[in-house]
Amino acid sequence: MRIGIDATCWANGRGYGRFTRELVGAMVAQGNGHEFVCFLDGRSAVRFDLAARNVRTVVIDRTAPRPTASQNGYRSPLDMLRLSRAIARESLDVFFAPSIYTFVPLPRRLPAVVTIHDTIPERYPRLTLPSPRARLFWHSKVRFAIWQAKLVLTVSDFAAKEIAEVHRVPPGRIRVALEAPSAHYRPADGADEVEAVARRVGLPAGARWLTYVGGFNPHKNLDVLVRAHKAVSERLSSPLFLVLVGALEDDGYHRDMDALHAVIRACGRGDLILWPGFLGDDAIRNLHSGAVALVLPSANEGFGLPAVEAAACGTPVIATTASPLPQLLEGGGLFVPPGDERALAAAIERLATDEPARRELGARARERAGALSWSRGAEAALAALEEAAA
Taking the complete model, does pTM exceed 0.85, yes or no? Predict the structure, then answer.
């Protein structure tokens, strides 16, 4: 088959950019005799690094679209028209959209598999899409994408159940391709590497810390994390730092940094919170390797890739129950209901004070993360594409 792929989110630093790079790379490696035609914009073309005999690229000369699940960002009609026309000019057997964010209308007779990672914009519209205009555009696009798709792909059974419920997609039209940690994520090679990145982000010698990796969006419940961290800090005999890793500049998603900073000021422990900004995989790997735990207290996660990446480093996780993580990382962490500040504080305190339990959970977390692979995700995605094209 000739498989068209929307690769315009290749350079994106969010989870769906990682999903696209890892999954498509694994699909190409498996090949199965297929040819892959990857459609790129100017920004993604610069970063696109997939070189193989069965890959061809089509570059659309335009700026990269802002993520559509944001306050004001959307792909312009002209952008959509250019990409749609480029897709129509190719003789494709099937089309794969790794992310709903960059979806564009497709030729009517072209079978498609469209990926929906979660239902967060639908469940928490005012935390992710605060303007009526953004909500209208988003919901219209998602409905149209589902209508055009022969099959909907998602990243976990948890997400599949939510998509069936929220979007009323029959379960028989949904397929699952599990995510996995990148090969970058493994325990640090030595204490020197951990110490070097700790100094780089501003941690003092001998410090202990929690990591959070992701966006600073309201649905991530970072205000709850800050308050829980403050409550635990008051009971510990030595400082426990909180390292919030993520892009500090506006990335197009709705966020309220002023409100988060106000919570930090009210708690009075801003001296224990570090903001290193965006970090590369190697730095995050070493930061995770030395951490007490990775904390992901979101209102909802379709998968929760940062937690799985931390687990691959042998780090226990404290994560939301509104996710597949309690099953994916069973025995590898502590899982708390979203918004439950007391439960979150109790989980943090336990891992900060019970080193044997922390080590046991970390070992199990690594084992569970090791059972996941992008290769199996690629097999599932290719099977869905072959089914759609049949």
Answer: yes
